[in-house]
Structures are given as structure tokens and as C-alpha cells.
Amino acid sequence: MVALIWLALGCRGDPSTVLSRLEESRRLAAELPVRFSQAAEASNRAVMADTDEGSIAATRESEKATQALEHDAAALAKLLESGRYSKEAQILHEFDAQFSQYSELDRRILALAVENTNLKARSLSFGAASQTADGFRDSLRSVASSIPVKDRCRVDALITDAVRAVREIQVLHAPHIGERDDATMTHHEKQMADLDTEARVALASLKELSPASASPTLAEALAKLDQFKATTRQIIELSRRNTNVLSLDLSLRQKPALATLCNDRLRALQDALAKEGFPPGR
User: What pLDDT does residue 13 have?
Assistant: First the structure.
């Protein structure tokens, strides 16, 4: 049996050199799934990261693992060619073709993930927009204290309407940020615009009922409302780009099938190389 193995190996050159080349091929073939797993895992972390820093760091890890995989695959291809392992070379070629498709999709996913537009929109909603909405409410409370008693009920109702409209816009930020359907986002935006109009109509009515001394406070409230509208516009623009939603969707819907095909070829490559050197396998 040993003689037959050495005879089979000898067909490819010096037996010791062939064995060394075969062992190195097996080692590289075993490394490829590890590199692939590292790249995929880091890519997934980039998509799930909740900060720019986290997304960028994970993206770099994925790119580094991908480069290592490509380096090992190129080295393995040379070994298989020099050793005339045509079957294994064909399997590696099939993997390269599948991995090319996978990499193209993954690059798109990572480019979207590092933009983090949905996360930035959410941060604006819970940060700047919330603070401005609170400032708007506080300004209107100051106006109420300067209103004559006879007009207080009407004024309180208008202030309630104005504050409610702004709060409802705040509530609509979240579903817009998480939405991926354009028509639904457009519907949310129409609701927000209508609510902004309601708040402005209430402010205009308040101005008519308020004494001149309340004018500076009403002007401050209007400035806060304008600022809130501008921030909401930023939120909508970021949300519309939808990079976090899209990167997650691509990771969950398209990437797994391509990853399965790549892993299948890598397993087939390892199995084929494991059988090399034994006559029954050739």
C-alpha cells in the first residue's frame, strides 16, 4: 500500500516535494473557512453596531479577514496548479466565483452599515428634537401665565393643541425611522406636516388673545417650533436613506444563501484534498 501511495505521488514529481505541497494545500484549505467565518462575523457586527465607531471598527476587521482569505486562496491556487490537482483546482475556482458574488454584496452591506443614517436619525429624534419640543412647551407655559383670567380656558386649550401636535410629530419619528416602504414614509411625512400646521394655527390664535407683553415669549415659541421643524426635516432625510434598515435587510435576506454556497465549496475542497495520495481517491 505504501509503495502504491508513493507511486501515485511520484506521478506528480518528487514524492517528498509532492507530500509537502499536499500538506500545505490541506492547511490552506482548512484556513479558508476560518477566514470566511471571521469576515462574515465581523460584517454582521458592523451591521448591528449602534455607533459609527463600532461599525467602522467591525468593517475594518471584515475587510482584513477578507484580504487574508483572498491571499490564502491565491496561494492555494498556485499549489494546486503546480501539483496538477485539477479536481481541487476546479472546486477552488467555483468557490472564487461564489465568493466574488458574496464579496460584492458584502461590500454594499458594509458601505451602508457605516453610514448609520437610521441611528443618526434616532439620535436626533431623542436628542435635539426632544429638547426643542420641551423648550416649545416651556415657552407656551410662560405665555399662559400672562393671559387674563377671562381668556385662560381658551388659551389653555390652544396651548394644549399646539403641544399635542408637536408631541405627535415626535411619536411619528420612530415609525418613519424604522420603515422601509416609501409610500408608508410619505404617509408619515404628510401626517407630520399636517400636525405642524395645527401647531402654527394654534400659535396664531394665541397671538390674537395674548397681551403685547407676551409677544417676545410667543416669538421664542415660534422660533422653537421652526427649529423643531428643521430638525424633523433632517430626521426625515436621514431616515429616507435608510442605510441601517437596508444593510440589515440584505444581511438577513440575500447574504445567507451566498454564504451557504461558499461554505459548500470549501467543504468540498477539504474533502477532495483529504482523499489525495490514495489510489482509490484518484
Answer: 52
Assign 3-class secondary structure to the chain: CHHHHHHHHHCCCCHHHHHHHHHHHHHHHHHHHHHHHHHHHHHHHHHHCCCHHHHHHHHHHHHHHHHHHHHHHHHHHHHHHHCCCHHHHHHHHHHHHHHHHHHHHHHHHHHHHHHCHHHHHHHHHHHHHHHHHHHHHHHHHHHHCCCCHHHHHHHHHHHHHHHHHHHHHHHHHHHHHHCCCHHHHHHHHHHHHHHHHHHHHHHHHHHHHCCHHHHHHHHHHHHHHHHHHHHHHHHHHHHHHCHHHHHHHHHHHCHHHHHHHHHHHHHHHHHHHHCCCCHHHC
Q: Where does the pLDDT of residue 14 fall: very low under 50, low under 70, confident under 90, or very high at 90 and above?
A: low
Tens digits of residue pLDDT in 189-246: 999 999 999 999 999 999 988 888 889 999 999 999 999 999 999 999 999 999 999 9
Nearest to 31, CA basis, from 72, 60, 63: 72
- CA 187 to each of CA 62, 181, 182, 229, 252: distance values in angstroms, whole numbers, following the listed order: 38, 10, 9, 17, 27
